[in-house]
Amino acid sequence: MASQVQIRRYLALWFQLGKSVHIDGNAQAYCPTNAIQGNDYSPEFEACWQIFVQAGLHHCHLDDVTPSLGDLTESAWDLHTCARCSMPIAQRVAGMASLDCPCSNQTNWPVLELPAPQAPQDWSQRIRAIGQRLQSQYS
Questions:
Q1: pLDDT recorded at residue 125
Q2: CA-based angle 80:86:90, to the nearest 5?
Q3: What is the CA radius of gyration of the chain?
Q4: pTM (predicted TM-score)
Q5: Taking phi first (over 0 means left), then psi (-120 to 50 degrees means alpha), and beta for anything else, what does residue 113 get?
Q6: CA-CA 20 to 30 A from 117: which of 1, 20, 63, 102?
Q7: Nearest Cα to Cα of residue 13 among 109, 121, 116
């Protein structure tokens, strides 16, 4: 079972690879151009997220993924890491695990020479921690 925080991270990572979300009964595909802005999600990502919440997460599907975003909040599903590409994938908790990953139809993926998609991170806190370690090491 995934939390909404985990689902948002999952979407942001796949949006960076060009995957879209489709809402049942709506022909439009949602994929923000920039999912991440600085240390947080972009306003474009936040606007898409609000659309998904208003439509109901059970009606929203990431390209090439069987469970809806709402299904991921239930105990039958969980998010794991794809063995091929290290991206998060939806897998059943019990029963036959699906071998499908949205990366299966990404041409030339994974590209190990390029940085992998990233979730928002508070870089200032990480840099402060590095500075503190250096300071304690050399004092």
A1: 79
A2: 30
A3: 17
A4: 0.77
A5: alpha
A6: 1
A7: 116
